[in-house]
Specification:
single chain; alpha/beta; Rossmann fold; 6-stranded parallel β-sheet; 24 helices; 36% helix
Length: 630
């Protein structure tokens, strides 16, 4: 066996740089690409000397980018994986201590959303000779604990490399976890800084890894037979399309199944864009932030086929929306397929849909049900067109629906026609607040991946960092980040990174002066506005907030403008599309108006209160629970 003398860091980086993967493009082509598209790193004393040297040596093969915040760069890595349908990753590296723990939130985002990311935080010395070192956590009862142990509950695989030879098994094992469709998620290799620098005789074969080829688990024959029988008994079936449809690239199989068997489709946040927005059987957004027509059909369904979805409470209306229906879950992960005592079909989404369709040859949903779905889908699209293109009300601030319509219809001439459509190559990115609800209902996604929402963890601050990751993944597509002022204030530093790296974003900031979404929930729970809107939070001796987001964005190197109305927004969007560097457009909005739709969502209300409004809200809460699936 031939070997080469390398440090652990050099062996790690050279393996990553050499690793290739067989990817399937959105148009169905197969090609070989680097599995690790690059690394984000913020260097400190725990990773600059050894890992930094190794990254420098491979910089022409595997680029390293400098970020401004560890959480931001890790969120960008999450978005990169999502935009690549989990087929490729980025690595992220920080020093020990706060740099490492800054990435824990991003690890949780990846974990919840089943997205791969390679975390490489520095760690304290394995020898412990200089302990305690700068930034070291000292646990009084556990000598082997470091800050990096925080990653254990939010990663799929965790390892601490205490000898350089361990990288030979730990790194392939981590990659195996990330490339298994059932276990896919973030992994963490904690790297003590002395071990990073230690040399060993590395087998040359480790530096020439085999090409990764994706596994597609087929359905079990018995499970498939039972699933076919369940669907064949349905008269009014409904498909809930989740993120697994996109991760499996099963959009053609989904369309074929719906068309062949006349089954309408509703979309979770994760599954939106799996079918074109104007497909005749696409009823649109389902759930708490769903459109009325989709939720009405869900309440009438007798069998729900949930494809690649975690059945999060926003999708199921806290398990009250379609509790009357029998549930069949097609999912590559048995944990998700077995939820809520439904029937399970554990398989790849594409193979599962194809096998179900073959087993159901000659079967269709009731003709009246299919016709009703087509009518409702058309009515829903007409409603979306109406509210997103309504004439502005003089003297009234616009709300999210009007802003979304202006952004959506800005392609080409900026004003769209009566059937205005978002560009087929646009990617809209969002994460938290009111905007996810409005975009879920109103955004028109035609191409798979054109709707990029982080709503598994609902992580405020994901938006701009996520936009950067999506742009790195898809440099030829226009990435439009829609973000509220609250999330913008949570994390905006990667705006400067987008300028530094030459990755143009269009960022639309909707400024409603606070946490408008939660303020509405607070009031609906019977409590007056408190600690959410900026004007309600002025302490004694404080002053009214005068944030100028456009000025701030310009200070970060972006071009920025504060527009006065929707018409000015449309014109600014046209200019932004034509620009070559990051553009920020700020518009004042109101949080008091939202678009209709939605369903009950379980938010616990106090059982006793001195406020009659809270007592009334608790009564509604108790009533809502009566419909929950048990």
């Amino acid at each position: 066996m031939k070997t080469i003398r390398l440090t652990m860091s050099q062996a790690l980086v050279r393996h990553l740089a050499a690793l290739r993967v067989e990817v399937t493009t959105a148009d169905g082509r197969t090609e070989i690409a680097p599995y690790c598209g690059g690394a984000f790193a913020i260097f400190g004393h725990g990773n600059v000397a050894a890992l930094g040297e190794a990254l420098y040596e491979q910089r022409e093969v595997m680029p390293t980018w400098r970020a401004h915040n560890e959480q931001g760069m890790a969120l960008a890595a999450v978005a990169y994986a999502k935009a690549n349908f989990r087929q490729r990753i980025l690595a992220v590296s920080s020093s020990i201590g706060p740099g490492a723990t800054n990435m824990v939130t991003a690890a949780a985002v990846a974990h919840v959303n089943r997205l791969p990311m390679l975390l490489l935080p520095g760690d304290t010395f394995a020898t412990r000779a200089p302990d305690p070192v700068l930034q070291q956590i000292e646990n009084f009862g556990q000598g082997d604990v470091s800050a990096n142990d925080c990653f254990r509950p939010v990663t799929r695989y965790f390892d601490r490399i205490t000898r350089p030879e361990q990288i030979l098994t730990a790194l392939p094992r981590a990659i195996q976890v990330m490339t298994d469709p059932a276990t896919c998620g973030p992994v963490c290799l904690a790297l003590p800084q002395d071990v990073q620098a230690e040399a060993f005789d590395c087998p040359e074969s480790f530096l020439h890894p085999e090409v990764i080829r994706w596994r597609r688990p087929p359905p079990d024959a018995g499970e498939l037979e039972r699933a076919v029988a369940l669907l064949a008994s349905a008269r009014q079936p409904l498909i809930v399309a989740g993120g697994g449809v996109l991760y499996s690239q099963a959009w053609d199989a989904l369309r074929a199944f719906a068309d062949t068997h006349g089954v309408p489709v509703v979309e979770s946040h994760g599954g939106k864009s799996a079918l074109p927005w104007d497909h005749a059987l696409n009823l649109g957004a389902i759930g708490v932030d769903g459109v009325t027509v989709a939720n009405q059909m869900a309440r009438q369904a007798d069998v729900v086929l949930a494809v690649g979805t975690r059945l999060q409470d926003f999708t199921t209306g806290s398990h009250a929306l379609f509790s009357q229906a029998r549930l069949l879950s097609l999912n590559v992960q048995p944990y998700d397929a077995g939820k809520w005592s439904g029937a399970s079909l554990v398989a790849d989404a594409r193979l599962g849909l194809q096998a179900l369709s073959a087993g159901l040859a000659g079967w269709s949903a009731d003709a009246g049900w299919t016709a009703q779905a087509r009518e409702q889908a058309a009515a829903g699209q007409a409603w979306i067109q109406q509210i997103t293109t309504a004439a502005p009300q003089p003297g009234v601030l616009p709300y999210d629906a009007e802003v979304i319509g202006a952004v959506r219809d800005s392609l080409n001439d900026g004003f769209g026609d009566a059937g205005g459509d978002s560009g087929t190559r646009d990617i809209v990115v969002c994460a938290a607040g009111t905007l996810p609800a409005e975009l879920h209902k109103l955004w028109r996604a035609r191409a798979p991946g054109g709707y990029h929402m982080e709503y598994g963890y609902s992580c405020m601050g994901y938006e701009i960092a996520g936009g950067l990751g999506a742009k790195i993944a898809a440099p030829d597509r226009e990435v439009i980040v829609m973000v509220g002022d609250g999330s913008y204030m949570m994390m905006n530093s990667e705006l400067a990174s987008s300028v530094l790296l030459g990755r143009k974003l269009i960022v639309v900031v909707l400024d409603n002066r606070g946490y408008g979404c939660i303020e509405r929930l607070q009031r609906a729970s019977g409590v007056p506005g408190f600690n959410n809107m900026l004007d309600d939070c002025i302490a004694e001796g404080g002053a009214r907030s005068t944030l100028d987001f456009a000025m701030h964005a310009r200070s970060m190197g972006a071009d920025a403008v504060h527009v006065g109305n929707v018409a000015e927004l449309k014109a600014a969007m046209v200019r932004a599309r034509a620009a070559s560097k990051t553009q920020v457009i700020v518009i004042d909005t109101t949080h008091h108006r939202t678009s209709p739709g939605g369903c009950w969502w379980e938010v616990a209300i106090p059982e006793v209160s001195q406020r009659s409004d809270v007592d009334a809200a608790h009564g509604r809460y108790v009533d809502g629970k009566q419909a929950q699936r048990v």
